[in-house]
Amino acid sequence: MLDLLPDDPVIIVVVVILLSLIFFSYMLVRRTILEFREGMDGDR
Q1: Which candidate, 36, 38, 39, 16, places its Cα nearest to that of 28?
Q2: What are the TM regions of this chain, as residue ranges (predicted)?
Q3: What is the CA angle 23-27-29, rounded to 5?
Q4: pLDDT at 14 over 90
Q5: Are 12 and 5 in contact (CB under 8 A)?
């Protein structure tokens, strides 16, 4: 398992930053869609 990790710490930092950006953008889109649905339901 440890053989898969690159030796260069810069690559590890870049991968972690990219994964966190993907995760936070997913959470932002998810929250926006849920609030939009609640707003549409409240209109009725």
Answers
A1: 36
A2: 12-29
A3: 115
A4: yes
A5: yes
Q: Structure tokens of 40?
A: 């549409």
pTM exceeds 0.85, yes or no: no
Tokens at 14, concatenated: 């870049």
Q: What is the 3-state secondary structure (H, E, C) of the chain?
A: CHHHCCCCHHHHHHHHHHHHHHHHHHHHHHHHHHHHHHHHHHHC
Q: Report the percentage of the chain scoring pLDDT > 70.
A: 84
**Closest Cα partner for 2 from 10, 12, 13, 15?**
12
What is the Cα–Cα distance from 43 to 31, expressed in whole angstroms?
Answer: 19
